[in-house]
Specification:
Elements (H helix, E strand, L loop, with lengths): L22 H12 L2 E4 L19 H9 L4 E6 L2 E6 L7 H13 L5 E4 L10 E5 H5 L10 H5 L5 E3 L7 E3 L7 E5 L2 E2 L4 E2 L4 E2 L6 E7 L13 E7 L5 E9 L3 E9 L2 E9 L2 H11 L9 E16 L4 E17 L4 E19 L3 E22 L2 E24 L2 E18 L7 E16 L3 E14 L5 E14 L4 E12 L1 E4 L10 E4 L7 E14 L2 E18 L17 E19 L2 E15 L10 E2 L6 E9 L2 E8 L3 E2 L5 E4 L7 E4 L7 E2 L3 E14 L2 E10 L9 E5 L4 E5 L5 E9 L1
Parallel strand pairs: 1-3, 8-13
Antiparallel strand pairs: 1-4, 2-3, 5-12, 6-7, 8-9, 10-11, 12-13, 14-15, 14-44, 15-16, 16-17, 17-18, 18-19, 19-20, 20-21, 21-22, 22-23, 23-24, 24-25, 25-26, 26-29, 27-28, 29-30, 30-31, 31-32, 32-33, 32-34, 34-35, 35-40, 36-39, 37-38, 40-41, 41-44, 42-43
Helix pairs in contact: 1-2
Amino acid sequence: MKRLIVLFLIFSLSVSAMAQMSIKDRMAMVAEQYGVSFVYNPSLPVNAPGTVADLKNGRLEDALTILFKGTGILWERSGKYVVLKREKHEGLSASQSEQFEVEIQMDTLIPSIISSRKDVVRTLDKLSIGIEDVRGIVSPLGEGDPIKWVQKLPGVASGADGTSAFYVRGGNMGNTLFSLDGVPIYGYSHLLGLTTIIPTAAMKSATLQRGGFDGADGNFTSAHLCVASKVPEDGFKTSIALNNFLLGAESEGKSGGFSYVVSARISPLAFEYRAIKGCLPDLFRQMNDFGAEVGDVYGKIRWQMSNKSWLEVSGIGSLDNYSFSLESDSQEYMRWSNAIGILKYHTNSENSSFEATAYVNKYGSEQVQDKKFRGSNSHMSLRSDLFEVSLSFDRNRRAGRFVFDYGAKMRYAQFSPGQVAAINNRSDTFLGDLYAQARYVLPEKLEMKLSARANYYKNLSNDGANFDPECSFCSRWKISDHLSIEGSFDRLVQYYHTLEGLPVGWSLDMIVPSGKNVKPESTLQGNLGLSFKAEDHNAAIGGFYKKMVNLVYYRYAQELFSGGMADWENNVNQGNGKSFGVELLYEYHHEDWYANASYTISKTNRYGFSEINGGGEFHAKFDRTHILNILGKWKGFSLAFTLQSGQWEDGAAATYPMHVLGGDKWTARYYSGVNNYHMPMLVRLDLGYRNSFETGKCKHEISLGVCNVTNHFNPFMLYYDSKSESWKELSLLPILPNFSYQIVF
């Protein structure tokens, strides 16, 4: 698996045709022409037929006046945003009108956003983006995803080049929660880390919360990446899309009170490998064979029972199954799968809302190895499974400038990690919590939020039980028209742990519960900084400090297969960590130009692990001192540059025992000591072009790009070579052309 190259296809463009447009369509044209973003309540009548007048000449204010004349919609410009409201807040009392203003300020109801550019909610702790801008990120698949977006944000270090691993403000990879509509996805990595299991056709937006967390979110200690699914509008449409590694189809529609979204994708990766190997055999000299079965399916049905209530059923499933051989007389298999079902009910009254959510979540991984070592055949099979059911209730109440939230959540989970031969290692757990939260907004002046959470956790398979409090606070004070000061504080607790695998971050995906021998992880963190806005410029600078307790370290983490995993609970070492740094985010937009830059300088360490460095201090995995990301766009062209300091590799000892159940043990030499091997820095330059056009009733979108233009060697992973009995580096992504094509009809 030394290199993976896919040749992109030649395409032809057709002449675009103009169709009758709605107000919303015309808003998109204005957004593109003038570089603004529309923020509005989804209940506004934006799907009505729009004006046919020319909106592209003259001032923005003139275009807005023409666009919304006689529609019952008022507009107000604030920097790059155009906030839309009902004229005289039709049908609302004076007090309700004021509450509506508070909701827009605090995102109590998520606003709809139309934007032609990367539209980031800029606070020090929370950043969000619409899915169309996410898709425009250059990636090996020809279109971006939420992970590729997150990896370019301040305070975030990526793992191996091209993978979905990311580390936020010094936490471990498993300390970040990834969710779809608030439901955890434990195996979000897809196509060997090149993307996620959630199809972009099903997404509406993505939000990364790094501090000042909501009370409804829990069981993580670093960050929360939340993906929101789309809700179809009136009418029906179908799309077909393909890129370097995936072929997919999606259909959505709405009629009356019912709407649906269905999406399915498969990967022709195995066929592409065989075709390219036949043409360029030297590129795959290290790999004797490769097979892949990769796909995902997503579906959602929504019933709008009334103007105030809706019921929603959704589900997602995915499969990643690979087989390959890196050397003669060996065969390796890896398999990951997800199956999630979600039921949601929502209702709202004049001053409050209520939502109930139930879900079933099943995640599994399996890794098998058949290898000839020292003249004898060995077979190793390792499985890990997680099954979780949950029920939660959330209530929201508004009173003047205050918004109150409170609720409860209960989870029952079965863990079966490290299954080797007849060893199952099953653990049953219960996690229940109650939370309360208060928010206050003084429009254009002050925003504050305070939440408290009480957790009760019990491992039903042993005597382990915990009661832990959590709390979060955040505030934003607008000092002047251009300058604001922000700050947050959090205490967080996590009960599910991920035992990270190979040294460059390809996780074993072995998720284990807290119990008698493994304590819950916890974090104390704070953040303080300034944000600045002035016409075409937006900037934020802040500093953070984080202290982590009971972080997990698996002593056999460097081994992909080991009989020692059957005894995983006795092989987990726990200690502490500390991280601090400064983050900078800058954004410029003007007409057809857009630029974004983020920079992080930080230090992250680990200490107090009895079996590592004698309990002394050492660098954390992917402790990258400097991280710089630069993005530039002009019309459909884009350029992205990434530079990340090389990280130090850690080893608990000079040698590691390799286990085979029922067989002999041998010793594998690894880089000896702590921080003993320094990986090279990660450098990437990506170029892309994206264009959309119409032919008749069809809309086309095509993206072309080149990843890693300089062909820089960026390590993907280390693997153990049984012939030389040593560890070797492997680079997976050289210079890689990519493409993506989508047709909507």
